[in-house]
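Much of the work behind modern protein science is quiet bookkeeping, done one molecule at a time. The fold becomes a row of whole numbers, each drawn from a learned catalogue of backbone shapes. The protein below has been through that process, and both of its lines are reproduced in full.
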Amino acid sequence: MRVSTRIWFAGVILAALMSAPAWGTTPAVPGTLNYVEGQASMGAVTRNAKSVGSMSLEAGQTLTTESGKAQILMTPGALCEYAARVNSRRLA
């Protein structure tokens, strides 16, 4: 009986460790910057590929692509892609 308790406990610990990477992720919300190639800006701040996933286009903000491309999450599963030289404002 003691051996099966140890196996059960080890299984619980293993399951917790395997799911640990999912604990730190933040869920994507509408307006999240999903992809940047080249030069794009949100408001007055230039964004690059390192900004992906950490920045969100808020209501009233403008996304401008100069010489690049960008992609914004609209709803889970729906993306809006912007080509070069586009200026777009989020209304809501």
User: Anything to note?
Assistant: Residues 2-18 form the longest helix (17 residues). The first strand starts at residue 33 and ends at 37.
